Task: structure prediction
Amino acid sequence: MIRIIVMTALATLFALPISACANNSSEKETESKTESINLKTEQTMTTLNKFEFPKLPYAYDALEPYIDKMTMEIHYSKHHNAYFNNFVAAIKGTELENKTIEDIFANISKHPAAVRNNGGGFYNHVIYWQNMKLDGGKPSEKLAKAIDKTFGSLDGLKKQFSDAGKTRFGSGWAWLSVDSKGNLFVSSTPNQDNPLMDVTEKRGKPILTMDVWEHAYYLKYQNKRPDYVDAFWNVINWDVVSERYDSLVK
Result:
């Protein structure tokens, strides 16, 4: 079996100024929202480290009109599921069953291509699904400051990240990651590689990714990858991306 070591009293309430009540409500909403995001992140890592196929966090048509229902269904149930099944088969009966996904990637150059390609396909898609949501908000104050520091502005990040996806030759991924010094950087990887792998040019911890394989967009956008890349900015779940950043940079 695969396992891996992821009301106060009414009188008091009415005595409060309206602003205080509003602030208290706002704080509770923020705390509840943060707790929910933290829980989702923990669940994501548990899924990854137990090598379980995750449930899609929304309906197939949830990202319309930017990503169509049929693409989502085929992408998730066929492509992602195949990567997962092939990855599990590739590590079955080996010492890799008892390692975390990050440990496997840290020495991916020592493992068979089936582990690299399918393990990457499994992990990359989990991160991709989680960092998408319709009307996904905006970066947290902490992340926004880091984006401004590194890229000059959110538009600066958008250009660099989009260029990484648009210019990736063939199939691959665009990434926003945090390096070992806590700095943000953009990169792209071929095939199913990712910044956690020891075969990548620059390593780091991913907080946002975009799939630029044709199966991620071809039914709706055909060969117009730039249109898909531009549309992707309408479905970024900034709450999740910000939480990932906050968990890495204390």
User: Anything to note?
Assistant: Strands lie at 172-178, 184-190, 205-211. Confidence is low (pLDDT under 50) at residues 1-34.
